[in-house]
Amino acid sequence: MGRVFFGVRKNVxxxxxxxxxxxxxxxxxxxxxxxxxxxxxxxxxxxxxxxLEGWSCKFxxxxxxxxxxxxxxxEGAIMHGYSEDITADIGIGTNGTAVTSLIIGQSAAQGDxxxxxxxxxxWYFKQLSQVSGSVTVA
Length: 138
Known about the structure:
Layout: E1 12-15, E2 19-20, E3 28-32, E4 41-44, H1 48-51, E5 56-61, E6 70-73, E7 79-85, E8 90-93, E9 101-104, E10 113-118, E11 123-129, E12 135-137
Parallel strand pairs: 1-3, 2-4, 3-5, 4-6, 7-11
Antiparallel strand pairs: 5-10, 6-9, 7-8, 9-12, 10-11
């Protein structure tokens, strides 16, 4: 009998303009490009009520030093997490104080990543970067 292969490909979507993430986007990898003609843009997460417990995604920067900032935004101050750079420095951390947005700045490097998930009430993130301070919170 021949080999049976299961669908193991990741669901990937390129973004270079504003986007409202959907409940059906769970598990998706968003490739973020900050070089669009329109400039900075916002990716809005679904409400946690719509996303449901376990919803997750990953964001990956595709442009070396993006020409515009990219913001990942929640419906309120309900995001907790931290950022770590290649020297193992903690760049940002919410330290118990929730934030509304993660802002990927123009110093970000190609391959920088942010992983997000929800427990159905709050969003949690972990950001890995090659450049200290390339992501800020608001």
